[in-house]
Predict the structure.
Amino acid sequence: MQRIINFILRYRNAFLYGFLMVVSLSLTVRSHSYHQSKFFNSSKWLTGNVYGIAANVSSYFGLREENERLVQENERLRLLLFNAEEETAQQLDSTFTANYGVFSANLIKNSFSSPRNYLTIDKGKNQQVEQDMGVITTKGILGIVENVSSNFATVQSVLNTKSNINAKIKNTNYFGSLIWDAQDYNVVQLIDIPRLVPLVVGDTIVTGAMSSIFPENIPIGVIKRYDLNTSRSFYNIDVELFNDMSNVKNVYLIKNKNRNEIKELEEKNTNE
């Protein structure tokens, strides 16, 4: 207490000056309309800036929660999109069930610089993730689930020399195989498209209908360049990916509920 008193006594002139300045400013503002107007305009400007900064800070710390809400909303919308035809059929037949399930996840490890790239997500068996589920982002396909543990899963990236995904030219029925030559992490290759197909640089490439993993028409990329292979019967097409494979965070997993039945049937044909 004595220290506080000594501090006040030591700086009493400064305190007195400050007090008198506040009093004089207050009297000036009250007695002159011009000064009063300037004071209130300044106070409004200061208050507005303080509130603006507070709102920005609050908004920044709420970004994660807002992002989670957007991911959940995208999950719901994609579920509706992938099952649009099934939804129409369900209105006609109450016993009809949707073919696809959609789950959201986060990427916790990304690889894009080696010939065989894999990614790791933060969902596993405990969250209903299974082998051979398709993995996409809001921009396009990412890969296929390969191995699953209790709470994590690894994904074979489209940037993997073992990857082979059915793809087609949008709005046509011409399809081929999507592979990667390990040259450029933004470009994959579409092969087995016959030379009779009219191609244009910039055409969109999407998933085909011959896949039991991905629904049809999920975006992949656009044609960057093309030429004929050595037999001159099929095109070799470079496809520039919509996804920036070096910058991925939120992903969606797609489960084809009929995949096991399809595989069993196909295996019977193979064994005959």
Remarks:
- The chain has six helices and twelve strands.
